[in-house]
Amino acid sequence: MRRRAALAGALAGAAIASATAALVLPGSGPAGVEGDAEHAARMLPAPVVPAFRPGAPHGLGSRRDLAYWAPVRRATLARAAPDRTAPVVVAVATKTPEGTDNALAVLARRPDASGTRWVRVRLAALPNGTTGWVPRSALGGYETVHTRLDVDLEQLRATLLRRGRVFLRVPVGVGMPSAPTPRGRFYVRNRLTRYRSPVYGPVAFGTSARSETITDWPAGGFVGIHGTDRPDLIPGRVSHGCIRMRNGDILRLARLMPIGTTVRIF
Amino acid sequence: MITLGELDRDEALLEAIARLCGPTRAELLRTTALGGAAMLAVLVARPASAEAALSDVDILNFGLRFERLQSTFYTQADEMGTIGRMSNPKQTWAETLGAHERAHVKIIASVLGPKAGPKPSFDFGNATETDADFTRTAVAMEDLTVALLTGVTPRIHDRRLTAALFGLLTVEARHASWARHIVGATPAPAAFDEPRTLDSVSGAVKRTHFITGAPKMTSSSSPNFTG
Predict the structure, then answer these.
(1) What is the pLDDT of residues B27-59, one digit of tens each?
(2) Which of A49, A168, B199, B212 has the fewest CB atoms within 10 Å distance of its CB?
(3) What was the pLDDT predicted at A61?
């Protein structure tokens, strides 16, 4: 019953539309079909102008200084090889001593014979430069960065590069001879602000580097990149291993350097 | 069958849907199969009371979130070398889609300006690491995006914005067809676009939780560094 009513409604609508067209469009009728169509086409309004149009698609650009990192989602063991039976290198926690989520720099990825995926990571462990394999399932989503911080211990200078281009170059204070800043390749793993320690300036970055001489420091002697309350000592070999910058410089760096940035100390 | 609740771990998408469609419909979507006819029906149906409250900014932000999901997916697979290891036709396909999605993100974020929502964190699991996982997930994602844009575009008040979103929708439909062609499926399986065909690839998506809570990487703790 309902379908019959709908059909009747549709037929009535069509009849009304035909009658309307005959009234509105000159020449309507069997003899002027093509002319009617042309006329109707001329009467159609122009398409609505879109409010925006995407720009031309573009590629990814330079991959220089590309690096990956991932947060640690569950505590796990880093092993010497991508194999559940391989020797343990170090235990990996989900948090850093500062209470941030732990982050690991990703170096390689590989499945084992059973299909379990493993990730080779750079570890914040002594000796500096230690790497290990952790299960992919222990990590969160990958993040990519295109920045690298070069710290030149001879020139007492730090340079931030993005995709190979220099964005910042500033003088630094580095470790004194009795507590040298370790050389090697590391990464930024957290950022601290609004703390009440003026000796560290307004911003401090935690890195995966650790002092090889001051190992009994609270939390294990991690090397940071931070500001200072003694800008007069920069540049110089004045720290216990950390990389110090003038406060204006560390603030500029904080605007440019994301978590996961590779830190190369040489 | 994957559901939005399974995919949207921190409920960011459900929040966005609740703003667009009302909390009742968002809750219904939580358990509705992704890409299925039921999901499309829920998205397209007129809301009882929330429509008057919809703003174009909300809808654009909803679109931006999905474009970011896609853009990050393709970009990550490209940067990790997964796309570079594919055959030439697949590389062209994946690189083209990635470039389009990045352009979409850029323009929508630009249109929204300071009203653009924050970028979510994503965890694609293994989906960006192998050719097979990547391809299956891409097919699912493109079909899903078509379904969602089909649902939200008619809700835009500004006709010029509607016209622009239709431009995006048709491109996403082309992406979906191309993706289906890549995996050997029929690019246009039906006369009316109901993305039921997502079922065939939902197995790979089911094992993923794409949108995650952002890791906490900053703190106000006093540094313990050696100084």
Answers:
(1) 544 555 554 445 445 444 444 444 446 789 988
(2) A49
(3) 81
pTM higher than 0.80? no
Q: Is A141 helix (H, G, I), strand (E, B) or coil?
A: coil
Rounded to the nearest 10°, the torsion over CA B24, B30, B31, B35 is 110
What lies within 8 Å, CB to CB, of A261 at 6+ separation is A67, A145, A147, A148, A149, A160, A187, A188
| B128 Cα to chain A: minimum distance (Å) | 10
Average pLDDT, integer, range B182-194: 83
Based on DSSP, count helices (H) and strands (E) in chain B, helices before strands: 9, 3
The DSSP 8-state label assigned to residue A262 in this structure reads E
Residue B99, chain A, CB below 8 Å: the answer is: yes
Q: Which of A49, A58, A195 faces B99 most closely, judged by CB atoms?
A: A58
Residue A33 Ramachandran class (φ > 0 left, ψ -120 to 50 alpha, else beta): alpha
Looking at per-residue pLDDT, the higher value among B11 and B215 belongs to: B215
Nearest-CA residue of chain A relative to B97? Answer: A57
Cα end-to-end span (Å), chain A: 87
How close B7 comes to chain A (CA, Å)? 14
Q: Is A16 in a helix, a strand, or coil?
A: helix
Question: Left if phi > 0, otherwise alpha if psi is -120 to 50, otherwise beta: which for B85?
Answer: alpha
Looking at residue B155, what DSSP letter applies?
Answer: G
Question: Do A86 and A80 contact (CB within 8 A), yes or no?
Answer: yes
d(CA A153, CA A209): 14
The pLDDT confidence band at residue A4, using thresholds 50, 70 and 90, is: low
Q: What's residue A28's pLDDT?
A: 46
Interface test with B, best of A49, A52, A69 (most B CBs within 10 A): A52
Selecting from A63, A140, A219 the residue whose C-beta is nearest the C-beta of B123 gives A140
| Mean pLDDT of the region A91-104 | 96
Query: Which chain A residue lies closest to B211 (C-alpha atoms)?
Result: A141
Which chain A residues are Cβ-neighbours of B156 within 8 angstroms? none
A62-66, A139-143, B124-128, B190-194, range with the lowest pLDDT: B190-194
Q: Do B218 and A190 touch (CB under 8 A)?
A: yes
* pLDDT > 70 in chain B, percent: 69
